[in-house]
Amino acid sequence: MSSNGSPLPSEPDVVLSVFLHGAHFQFAACLTAALLFVQEHQARHYVDAVTVRLADTAGLPRLPCERLYLGP
Q1: 63 and which of 27, 37, 43, 45 could share a cystine (Cβ 3.0–4.6 Å)?
Q2: Could you report the per-residue pLDDT of 19-51, keeping only the tens digit for each?
Q3: 4 belongs to a structural domain
Q4: How far apart are CA 72 and CA 69, in angstroms?
């Protein structure tokens, strides 16, 4: 699998938008990684600083360390 591919190709990719310290970032991520990222982010930062939506992810970088959100 290429480094740009989803770690869970059977799941849809979503757009993960993150607003952190005045900067806005958008990433592509598989649904499970995005939802676990949201959980972790909300526990440590502002609750409304992350959104997940189904949309075209073409051209977006993948969530850095995406695989780390998929397991222990």
Answers
A1: 27
A2: 888 889 999 999 999 999 988 888 876 666 889
A3: no
A4: 8
